[in-house]
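Open question from group meeting: does this chain pack into something compact, or does most of it stay loose? Before anyone orders reagents, we agreed to write out a predicted structure and look at it together. Recording both the input and the output here so the notebook holds the full record.
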Amino acid sequence: MIKNMGSTDRIIRLVIAAIAAYLYFGENLEAPWGTVALVVGGIMLLTSLINFCPLYRIFGISTCKVS
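Structure tokens returned:
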């Protein structure tokens, strides 16, 4: 996999994942929205850790700076 996410994109995704986890584990959302928030947060966390977003590849987007 070729990296297609820049550092700003990764930070935003990590913040979204943290907010989703807070909403789920803090029981601030009722079912099924809490589960949806947890799944979205998990996807955001995973993509930020591997520096790759499959949707970016499909649409030909890259936020990674070319060196």
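Observations to bring back to the group:
The chain has a mean pLDDT of 92.
Residues 13-50 form one domain.
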